[in-house]
Automatic annotation (TrEMBL):
Classification via CDD domains: VOC_ShValD_like (cd16361)
Name of the protein: VOC family protein
Origin species: Psychroserpens luteus
UniProt keyword list: Metal-binding
Highest taxon above the source species: Bacteria
Gene3D superfamilies: 2,3-Dihydroxybiphenyl 1,2-Dioxygenase, domain 1
Classification via InterPro entries: Glyas_Bleomycin-R_OHBP_Dase, Glyas_Fos-R_dOase_dom, MMCE/EMCE_epimerase, VOC_core
Keyword Metal-binding among record annotations: yes
VOC domain boundaries: 10-157
Pfam families attached to this UniProt entry: Glyoxalase
Length: 170
């Protein structure tokens, strides 16, 4: 038997493109409570710095500048917000059946209150709050959207706790 040196990698951050960086920082810091670790700033296309060259490597040459901000969740996961002046200012059509990022998920034991805040800040609730084990456990979930149309999910309990209970078995 071969000795495997594989181990679970940790999640570092997710990058989200938004139409209005200031409004996005306000939403994610005030509604989600995420820490602002770098206020919105402008990155200009240039080759004199490592950041400038890296952005050209990532985005190619068809840009001149963009805005960026960095936030962090309570468990240290980074949220990198981008806003491009010439980008499409609407979220793409919701298409969970196609390959690509479908959603991200946050955890909050007070799912009802969080959904109220999301709605108050211009977001949407995509479905009713559902329970995984209505007769046995208080595990709830719901899909929502931020004010920009980015879909995400809310769990009341940890991912491990929810699925280690066998959510799909009966």
């Amino acid at each position: 038997m071969k000795n495997s040196k594989n181990y679970p990698k940790s999640f570092s951050h997710i990058g989200l493109t938004v139409p209005d960086i200031k409004k996005a920082v306000k939403f994610y810091s005030e509604v989600m409570g995420w820490y602002v670790i770098m206020e919105p700033s402008t990155v200009k296309k240039e080759t004199e710095t490592a950041i400038g060259q890296m952005c050209i490597d990532v985005f190619g040459n068809d840009w001149t500048e963009f805005e960026i901000a960095h936030l962090s969740t309570s468990d240290g996961i980074g949220i990198e917000l981008f806003s491009f002046p010439n980008g499409i200012k609407e979220a793409p059509e919701f298409s969970p059946f196609n390959t690509g990022l479908f959603h991200f998920c946050v955890q909050d034991p007070n799912i009802e209150e969080l959904i109220e805040k999301i709605l108050a800040y211009g977001g949407k609730q995509r479905m009713p709050i559902r329970e995984y084990y209505p007769e046995d456990k208080p595990f709830k979930m719901c899909y929502v959207e931020d004010p920009f149309g980015i879909v995400f999910e809310i769990y009341t309990h940890s991912y491990e706790l929810t699925y280690s209970s066998g959510a799909y078995s009966k």
